[in-house]
Amino acid sequence: MRRAALLTVPALSALFTLASCGIPETGVVEAGGPASGVIPMIPVYFVADGSLIAAPRRTPASVDVESAVELLLLGPSDAERAKGLTTRLVLSGMPTLAPDPRATPAATYSLPPEEPPAADPVEVTTSDTGVSIELAAEAGELPGLAVDQLTCTALGVQRLADPRAEPSPVTVTGPDGREMEGSGASCPER
């Protein structure tokens, strides 16, 4: 019993010392807005010298295949074009890429302030069995490298969204109705 009393005395002494150290009690301190987290970087794939190259894009939207395909369809930025990046996805009615003037990083883009296309040239559907990317009839010819751009972008975003899961298969349907299954074999390692 005496031992318990000896251990209690130093603990109480330390407690009183801390309680009377002179620091006043405060309530909630307002110090700016809530934390917003990190804006995700999603990979979109362009072409340079006949090969696919991943280009990171910041997006305030969710990390999903549809958002990534929308960013891919905007094409490379002026700086990326100066480095030799191009796209094989040329869809009529799609707006061109415009730098977001409010953004500090050069990899953040937005649609220019003009009317959106009358009809969506691309429809993206994600299900438990896979990802389907369908191009409208106005899309024109779809070369193999364009299919690879869509496939690699879709697979890259799936890997980013859930790195532990196996990405769902990607099927690209061209304007002629022909379906092309994307395996990702042509996708470069990031």
State the end-to-end CA separation.
67 Å
Order of helical and strand elements: HEEHHEEEEHEE
Mean pLDDT over the residues: 74
Shape: globular
Please characterize this protein's 3D structure.
Strand 7 and strand 8 form a beta hairpin. Strands 5-6-7-8 form a four-stranded mixed beta sheet. The protein starts with a helix and ends in an 8-residue tail after the last strand. Helix content is 26%, strand content 21%. It has helices at residues 2-19, 65-73, 78-82, 144-161; strands spanning 41-48, 51-58, 98-99, 109-110, 122-127, 130-135, 170-173, 179-182. The chain has 190 residues and is an alpha+beta fold. It has one domain (41-182).
Walk me through the topology:
Elements: H1 2-19, E1 41-48, E2 51-58, H2 65-73, H3 78-82, E3 98-99, E4 109-110, E5 122-127, E6 130-135, H4 144-161, E7 170-173, E8 179-182
Parallel strand pairs: 6-7
Antiparallel strand pairs: 1-2, 3-4, 5-6, 7-8
Helix pairs in contact: 2-4
Write a short abstract of this structure.
This protein is α+β, with helices and mostly antiparallel strands and 190 residues long. 26% of the residues lie in helices and 21% in strands. It has helices spanning 2-19, 65-73, 78-82, 144-161; strands at 41-48, 51-58, 98-99, 109-110, 122-127, 130-135, 170-173, 179-182.
Q: Could you list some keywords that capture this structure?
A:
21% strand; alpha+beta; globular; 4 helices
